[in-house]
Specification:
The protein is mostly helical. It is built from 6 helices and no strands. The protein has helices at 5-8, 11-28, 41-55, 67-71, 78-94, 99-111. Helix 2 packs across helix 3 (41-55), helix 2 crosses helix 5 (78-94) and helix 5 (78-94) packs antiparallel against helix 6.
């Protein structure tokens, strides 16, 4: 039996660290940082972590909106979406995530593009 992506990311601890670094990257990324101004950073980090955990095969404790509902009306450009993926790659590198896991997570993230860009 193969292990889930969640387990290969280090379980709840590893996924939470990855999500926290991803949010930190977003806050520092000039291409998208304004999207997060005035936001509740701890709540955002929690939502990102629980979303990542649930989406990679861990416990489903995510209580937020689905991707389409969360991004509807925000008019997110394709370039902003790519900035998010770049931030994810950087966070995965920082957390020493293996190549296979990086590819799987990028596939998951990219599969949500139609629910985020220009919706």
């Amino acid at each position: 039996m193969s292990t889930s992506l969640y387990e290969r990311l280090g379980g709840t601890k590893g996924a939470t660290e990855l999500a926290n670094d991803l949010v930190d990257n977003h806050l520092a990324n000039k291409a998208i940082a304004t999207r997060f101004e005035g936001g509740d950073v701890p709540a955002l980090k929690n939502a990102a972590a629980t979303f990542l955990i649930a989406g990679t095969g861990g416990p489903n404790n995510y209580k937020g909106k689905d991707m389409l509902a969360a991004h509807k009306g925000m008019n997110i450009a394709a370039s902003e979406f790519m900035a998010v993926l770049d931030d994810a790659l950087d966070a995965m590198g920082k957390n020493s995530i293996g190549q296979r896991e990086q590819e799987e997570l990028l596939f998951i993230l990219y599969s949500m593009r139609s629910q985020v860009v220009l919706v």
